Amino acid sequence: MTLPPPRPELQKARPQASSNTGPIALCLLTVFALGGGFYAYTQGLLPASPAKMADTPKPLPAAAQLSMLSLNDAPKALAASHFDSATRAKIMASLQRGDIRLAQLPLLDAAGVPGQVVDVTSAGITQRVVLSASFQPVVLPITTAGAVSITPVTAPHNALLSIIALTALGPEALPTLTGLNQAIELGVIVQ
Questions:
Q1: Which sequence spans correspond to the domains of the chain?
Q2: Which keywords annotate this record (predicted)?
Q3: Could you tell me the pTM of the whole model?
Q4: Looking at the predicted structure, is the pLDDT value of residue 177 above 80?
Q5: Among 7, 52, 83, 190, which is least packed, fewest CB within 10 Å?
Q6: Are 75 and 116 in contact (CB under 8 A)?
């Protein structure tokens, strides 16, 4: 059985429709992308600029229990503090009224490098403390439970700043700071 030889047949040419869908789709995609970006920018959905993020310290939470200084020990502790005489008088008056309590929070630089400067803020009063390898006493006026903020003033000498606090329960390592844009928020209970 033999097959007949194949015969090529010419197909009719199909008319090609001119299509402008590619450029139109590209224009629509561009409009939606720009509109979505504008919406995200105006609604605050995009991350803040690095300059804005560097201004506000990022709080690192921690907690500590401190022993209260007695009313008899308060004048001696305040005299050894870095407060000026007007601030000492205000703190002593508040202490005698029972509005605040006084506690000590000795701090040291765990790396043992002297010269690291931090600001310690409690009850709206900020103290500047120079850390070293030995404990530096810090007098804190606080309510029964309060917050103490520790913010670096100078950039860490090493890649990070590790602070040790001497609490009522013994030495406690606080969260490590890596730059000036961080702060330790220390929740404090005084007993």
A1: 24-54, 57-190
A2: Membrane, Transmembrane, Transmembrane helix
A3: 0.68
A4: yes
A5: 7
A6: no
